[in-house]
Design a protein that fits this description.
383 residues
Length: 383
Amino acid sequence: MPALTLGFIVNPLAGLGGSRGLKGSDGAELRSLAMTLSPTEKQRSNERAARAMQCLCTIEHVSILTWGGAMGGDLCASLGLSHRSVGQHNATLSAAADTRLAAEAIMAVGVDVLVFVGGDGTARDIFDVVGDSFPVLGVPAGVKMHSGVFAVSPEAAGELLKELAMGGLVGLRRQEVRDIDEDAFRHDQVRSRFYGDMQVPGEGRYLQHTKVGGRESQELVAADIAAWVTEQLDQGFLYIIGPGSTTAAIMAELGLDNTLLGVDVVRDRQLLLADANEVDLLEIIAEYSDPAKIFVTAIGGQGHVFGRGNQQLSPQVIRAVGVDGVSVVAAKSKISSLDGRPLLVDTNDPQLDAELCGYREVITGYDDRILYPVASMVKTEEA
């Protein structure tokens, strides 16, 4: 099982205004008030963070990138969690700019999921850095939490992260980031503003998926996956469709002929190239200079997404497209049959395999995605 790398940021001021009947913890005035609060009141955010993160104390293959001091490093050290601080704020009290700076630094190093502890204001700061394309999970610690990016409790957040680290089926959903105007709220006026959506993990066993007679229907799931994928296709993109019955459903949804055991290329919903080999793929990528994306599925009983039955998708082809351009599609039943083992890559390029490893999004149905580990059997030397 590959290590789960978490980004971890605590807003130590989150929730401080709640015990005083205030309507939030944003703004300079409330930051000044924080200097007068009791030690117990000041510990609210870190206590809730500890309740979430202590679930990971017994999990060996979890590493944490955090911000030093009260924004995460101190808590990780107190719990004995393996962690590395990539920076630290210098002021006595942290501010929104510190949250954004921490998020930028952690994302630059690279993590699988970014966990933050705070309220709606913190969620908004994280959204400013991360946007809508990266998994985040909020541990609720604020006064007001109108956003859908938070777990229902600190313990729920911890259990979800534990399940993810243990190879469970953890889904991905788009959830709203919302915040209210605190000044208006203090005058009994509720003005909620939508800021955007973020990708948030949720327990896969609670997600609805297509079933027939109590068992997942492979054909219906493949059709659901195909319907979702084809709705997301953009004009002017090259789509490289790998072999397999699940990817074949994508071609069927487009009304195009498919090479079941080969690789096809689609552009603007038209078949551009059928049964392409490595040379064909490299030439067409170079010729069109369009953004490109690869769709692959798990092949064989071991769950290989590269290196079994799709060698046309060589390291050179994958690098030409880019690691971020790889999308995995698979039914949950196929993932479940791995019994917690990761999906595998074996491209014959150990460095590329290492880049493909980690926790990746897998499309498992119509607007239904999970986070699942991808690993390589080849060990690479650390620099």
